[in-house]
Fold:
Amino acid sequence: MKQVVVSRAGPSEVMDIREVSDPVLRNGEVRIRVEACGVTFRDLLGRMGLDEDVPLMPFVPGWEVSGRIEAISQGVTDLQEGDNVIALTHFGGYSNQVCVPYQQVFRRFDWMTAEDGAALPVSYLMAYLMLVVMGSVQPGDRVLVHGAGGGIGLAVLDLCKILGVEVLGTASPEKHEALREHGLPHPIDYRHMDYEQVVNDLTGGRGVHLVLDALGGRHWQKNYRLLTPTGRLIYFGLNSMAPGPTRSRWAWWRGLVTVPFYTPTRLMADNHGVMGLNLSSLLAANGLQKRWMRQLLSWYDEALFRPTIDRTFTLQQAAEAHDYLQARRNIGKVLLIP
Structure:
């Protein structure tokens, strides 16, 4: 089979495509013939050596795939050979075949394209977790999401429409027109404007009920100040620590020294909540995953949302896909097609 391998930490050129033996099934796994694979910013962090969850190098990136089951092992229930599926892979997705624990595999509707299937698991599951499970948003609440033009940002916009939640979002100016068409009335240019002041102006100084922050660093304190009483701040990334194609010790150090300390007494006095989301540590919560994904697939079945796919690349173009995502040129998901 073919797979993309990160040989060492560095720029996109450290990835090679290799021919290796077909994967061997273990008990409780299914082997999937991959038809599409999602590219996430966390793949980039792993390639640069900035993700502590990455296996020892060399490793194969890729957190989400869509395809067809080729084989099943003992212990697998509710799935069979030939099923169209989507799966959370926890690395290994940049391949044309991958073995996955069956609890992380979900049937794909026959009318769902492989591309939609690969664009759904990470972005929409994280958006659902932050909005519904952890954020507890209610109709009429206000949410601020950073990186509104990315895969997770657009998933947040889609789910907020379903939930009746008002959204404010930051994005680079070249994405604003597309975001307005997607239902974001006031995209905020975070590069040339103080988004804290803009949000306060738009909300009459009332702030927002929930902030979704994948930036980190100097943005932590600004986002905290934007919370209403009982507001929640959820961290789900540290993108500001990876401003370029290679690891920057200065950016990493600067991000670490700006980490704020939220004491219980301060949180109690402010009536605020601060949370973090790491999808990889939730993969063991199999029963919860299935419940969350069941709701998302139900909304997809009702045509309440469709993933926005910006561009597809071949496995051989994985480095180009990383460069494209690193430059923040995408509006929606970037995929690899084996």
